[in-house]
Amino acid sequence: MKIEVLGTGCAKCQALTLHVKEAVAKKGIFAQVEKVEDIMKIMSYGVTSTPALVIDGQVKSSGKLLSTDEIVALLE
């Protein structure tokens, strides 16, 4: 599983990255977690508001800071 956190480095983007890592640990799964700050790559997903969460190439959330539990639910 590949999980990408899209954002330019703001506090919410950093918090989302932390929440993703906590959710992966909570689920006990193996996942590649990548922080994407390249604006061209972010735009290639059609995301206009960050932070955004992409799981296996599919945008799951954009423009809001998800909680760890919300991310766990998306990993189901």
Characterization of the model:
The chain has a single domain, classed as Glutaredoxin, CATH 3.40.30.10. It is built from 3 helices and 4 strands. It has a 4-stranded mixed β-sheet with strand order 2-1-3-4. α1 links the parallel β1 and β2. The mean pLDDT is 95.
**For the largest beta sheet, what order do the strands appear in spatially?**
2-1-3-4
**What's the CATH H-level homologous superfamily?**
Glutaredoxin
As for the CATH topology, it is: Glutaredoxin
Distance between the termini: 12 Å
User: What is the mean predicted local confidence, pLDDT?
Assistant: 95
Please tell me the CATH architecture by its name.
3-Layer(aba) Sandwich
Please state the CA-atom Rg, rounded to the nearest Å. Answer: 11 Å
- What is the CATH C level class, in words? Alpha Beta
